[in-house]
Amino acid sequence: MNSQVLSIDIFEKHYELPRDIITYIDEHHRFETYRQELLAYFMDNFYDYQNLSGEVERKTYEKFRHYGNLCVQKLIANDIYNATVDELVGSTPANYTWKCCSDASTNDGVKMFYKALCDSMMEQANALLAQMNSFMNQAQQAEAERDSKITGTGFGIITNDIIGFGVWAAMENSAIKKQASAAGAQFRSEIDTIQRNLENNSKARLDKYGKEVWLPSLKNSIDLFVISLFNKYMEILISNGKFNPDALKYIDIAKSQSILQNINTTENKVGILDAAFLSCPFNPEIYDIAMGICNIEEIVNCAKLFGVDEYLKSKQTDVCNKIAQNGNYGEQEIVEKITPYLHLLSLLDEKPVEEIRDGLLGVHRKLIKDKILRMTNNLQSSSDEGIKSFIKSITTTPIAELTGVSEEELRKYVVSKIISEVFKKDEPAAYESTISNAAEKMVSIINNYLLKVARAKSEYLLNKEEYDKYKQSADEEIRKLSEQLSALGIFSFSKKKELNARINGLQEHTVELKRNFDTSERAYYSLV
Hints:
By secondary structure, this protein is mainly α. The protein has helices at about 20-45, 55-75, 85-90, 100-105, 110-150, 160-240, 255-260, 270-280, 285-290, 295-305, 310-325, 330-350, 355-380, 385-395, 400, 405-420, 430-485, 495-525, and strands spanning about 5-10, 15-20. A two-stranded antiparallel ribbon has the order 1-2.
């Protein structure tokens, strides 16, 4: 039997605990890995219980035995040679049916899984049977309703005359045929509706079963399998003198948690921590609470011994990252807020305080650089309207007048925008290179836009000039032609036609030039 002890100084006391507490922690972590792997495998392959493969029993049983075999190999490495997979999980069944697999297994989790598998098959069968019974009942009711609608003419025999009777019989027969045809069509429609509704109801029932029964049963059976396997594995270690059972007195995490609930009811907080520690020395909450009470070096050393250091490091790092990612803080303020955590993180991570501090500042600086990059990317992907809005946000100078502004002046506007949008309490000079690169890209985008504005203005002015000039001459020409037209006699058809054609041509061209002018004018003013 392993009689080694752990010598620990913490909470103002000296402890000597069985070293096999560490063995237990290591084995517990290993079996937790088994649990996660198994659960992932079962969820990937057997999530949909309505479409399981025909070999589901064999595949799952072999998977269970695989993890039993891993335990056997671990025991052999520990010089224990008499353990078998049959003992830990179960023997190979005579046939791979759910019942044979369940009967062959020695593990309660395996038995739970095959019971859940059997129950799921029965649920599908019951759902189908219920659907069939409901269909038959509703179909019979629909059939009865169909027959009740075939009633004849409803007049009865109104004469004893043989001819009259024959006419009535013919009418009655025709009416029945029509009613039967209509009732038959309605009956078929009702049957289709019944079938669809029942299929939908059955699907809803099976989906609900999968969510509320099958998946929880699947998870619970995996959990129970791993717990049962772990217990048998530990029993074998103990019976072969490879694990000190006294260590089991120190793994009651529920009791440890319960003791910690009393921490605020007494001033003797160290006494509470001591009692919780003796119930479960790897309860992470003990170390959380002890941070502000006890010697931090002793806490960290003990946390590392019991594998709680990663939890503490993750928790403290998360706190510091939240501070570093707060855009309302400047670097000096961030340093002040993370300083209380740096010594602890340095001990946990075994890195210099300066390195950890700089790493957290790097998180903050990346946040600022990412904001600047997003501003640049947003402008690059903006429409004309977006670029126009950006330009108006950086200067009160009208866009139409910016074409005469130098690039250096534009750059000042852009840099001022970046600083006002991104920086709160930081010193922008620390980000000079990032700001400069972003400003160059933004100025380039703005210059390209202003070039587009200049081209649109030039086209607009040219069209305006051409329209104004042409309209003036055209109006004069039309006036003269109109005078000639008025002077012609009533029979000057040919000349009138010629003059009207010339007037129409002048008017149409004027309209065309006006249209071009209006279009270019709208295009220009939409940009400014």
